[in-house]
């Protein structure tokens, strides 16, 4: 079996979340609040089925998918742009490609020790976040 992402993960630090939000066209006021947040991720993985709950005091986001199966993503509460998304394994990394109005949009998750890494991509911007197992 590939990597096991199951668990609760607490935000530790972030690099260039601002650039990522700007690339998504998130407004000033929302960016100011969002960059202060320390979200928590609860990931459930059962075979090829995943759910990721990202919760914060301001906004929360939920996504559910099966490896290799394209799904409609609404990005509700984020930038609200609809995407056709698909998540695949790249060795032990989970790679999501979000096809829509924004070029080069997607994310990658991987685990190192008790840390969960997330790289968020949009256009020419890359945001890196680190979470620690709760
Ligand atoms: O995560 O795509 O784990 O969806 C941040 C909520 C959620 C804070 C960011 C509010 C979602 C921000 C990042 C307001 C603009 C994301 C995926 C990978 C799963």
UniProtKB/TrEMBL annotation:
Which GO molecular function annotations are given, in alphabetical order?
A: lipid binding
Annotated InterPro entries: Calycin, Fatty_acid-bd, ILBP, Lipocln_cytosolic_FA-bd_dom
Instruction: Specify the protein name.
Output: Retinol binding protein 7
Q: Name one Pfam family in it.
A: Lipocalin
- Establish whether keyword Transferase is in the entry: no
Q: Which residues form the signal peptide?
A: none
Q: Which residues form the Cytosolic fatty-acid binding proteins domain?
A: 7-24
The alphabetized UniProt keywords are:
Transport
Q: What is the lineage of its organism?
A: Eukaryota, Metazoa, Chordata, Craniata, Vertebrata
State the family it belongs to: Belongs to the calycin superfamily. Fatty-acid binding protein (FABP) family.
Query: What species does this protein belong to?
Result: Pelusios castaneus
């Amino acid at each position: 079996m590939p990597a096991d992402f199951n668990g609760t993960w607490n935000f530790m630090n972030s690099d260039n979340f601002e650039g990522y939000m700007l690339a998504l066209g998130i407004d000033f006021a929302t960016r100011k609040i969002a960059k202060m947040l320390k979200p928590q991720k609860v990931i459930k993985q059962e075979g090829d089925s995943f759910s990721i709950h990202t919760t914060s005091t301001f906004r929360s986001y939920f996504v559910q998918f099966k490896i290799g199966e394209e799904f409609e993503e609404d990005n509700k509460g984020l930038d609200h742009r609809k995407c056709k998304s698909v998540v695949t394994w790249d060795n032990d990394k989970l790679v999501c490609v979000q096809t829509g109005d924004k070029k080069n949009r997607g994310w990658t998750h991987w685990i190192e020790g008790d840390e969960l890494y997330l790289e968020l991509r949009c256009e020419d911007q890359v945001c890196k976040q680190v979470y620690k197992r709760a």
